[in-house]
Amino acid sequence: MKIALDPYMIRDVPLLELPSVVAELGYEWIELSPREDFIPFFRHPRVDDATVRKFRKALDVAGVGISSLLPLFRWSGPDEDARQAAVRYWKRSIQICSDLGVDSMISEFNGRPEDPDRSEAQFWKSMDELLPLFEREGIKLALEPHPDDFIEDGHDAVNLIRGINHPSVSFLYCAPHTFHIGNDAPGIIKHAGELLTHVHLADVLDHTASSGNRYIVNPPGTAARVHQHLDIGQGEVDFDELFRELRANGFDGTLTSCVFAWEDRAKESSVFMRKKIDEYLATWTRGQLT
Questions:
Q1: Quick check: 237 and 203 in contact, CB under 8 A?
Q2: Among positive and negative, which fits the CA dihedral 135, 140, 145, 147?
Q3: Could you say which of 69, 120, 216, 285 is the most buried, measured as most Cβ atoms within 10 Å of its Cβ?
Q4: Please, are residues 77 and 119 in contact by the beta-carbon 8 Å criterion?
Q5: What are the backbone dihedrals phi and psi of residue 242, each rounded to the nearest 5 degrees, phi first?
Q6: Number of CB atoms found within 10 A of residue 74's CB
Q7: d(CA 87, CA 287)
Q8: What are the percentages of helix, strand and coil residues in the chain, rounded to 5?
Q9: How big is the chain by its Cα radius of gyration, in Å?
Q10: How far apart are CA 271 and CA 151, in angstroms?
């Protein structure tokens, strides 16, 4: 099992210094999410081959690995020009991943929830172009349903991934999205079975509580999907239940700390999350998750 850090809160750390900082925080793995000097949100990668080589060396020196690259592109959006651009960005990102010696990438379904049929058709079109590249480079892809994607429900996402019917494509469960993707961690994890290879760990408050009035968002009826990525214990995700089901499912993939709420205490939060994950895994090992 790999325990990784999403270093988004410390994205201002220079890229070549990032591995040593992550090692100081107690992590051996990085899940590299978008950053402006590497692969930014929704735009073509900015890193060149020379920097990729330097980054790989810095990782080796620090004794830190990249568990996965996490690019986010509009590869399922209804706009065809945007989809084609996203596929170009994906192709360069896959090459970067291969050059780093990394065998895993993570992303979201993207697309538009108000136009799911068109978005899914665009998704399949992109997959037809990209799956041969993943196969050629020996890279696996884990997908997660995300609030405001064309597919948001966890069970539906598992069904779609199962429909892709490809050994390189798997499912990611994101704990801070629990209340947007069905509020059924045990059921979704069980439904995913061996398709579950990655889990994002952070806490969140239940936005549906208090008759949906926990968050007051204006104007009324807005389609905004409000959630947080908090330290474990600051929200309402049942992590005992989540880890119990992971254990029952025989999970042996990647657990990633992906807290985003505390940039003013990013290092403290990252150290805290590593400690909490270790505590859950120790309880798991002792068989106390009953």
A1: yes
A2: negative
A3: 69
A4: yes
A5: -65, -50
A6: 21
A7: 45
A8: 45, 15, 40
A9: 18
A10: 33
Q: Tokens in use for 29?
A: 């793995």
Q: Are 237 and 266 in contact (CB under 8 A)?
A: no
Can you give the pTM of this predicted structure? 0.93
Contact criterion met (CB below 8 Å) for 46 and 36: yes
pLDDT at 290 over 60: no
Q: How far is residue 257's CA from residue 274's CA, in Å, rounded to a whole number?
A: 7
- Tens digit of each residue's pLDDT (9 = 90 or more) over 166-215: 999 999 999 999 987 888 999 999 999 999 999 999 999 876 766 666 77
Query: Could you tell me if 178 and 204 are in contact, meaning their C-beta atoms sit under 8 angstroms apart?
Result: yes
The structure tokens 């003013």 sit at: 264
Taking only the tens place, the pLDDT of each residue in 216-270 is 676 766 776 777 889 999 999 999 999 999 999 999 999 999 999 989 999 999 9
Instruction: Give me the pLDDT at residue 33, please.
Output: 96
State which H helix or E strand residue 274 sits in. Answer: helix 266-286
Closest CA to 199 of 176, 226, 227, 166: 176
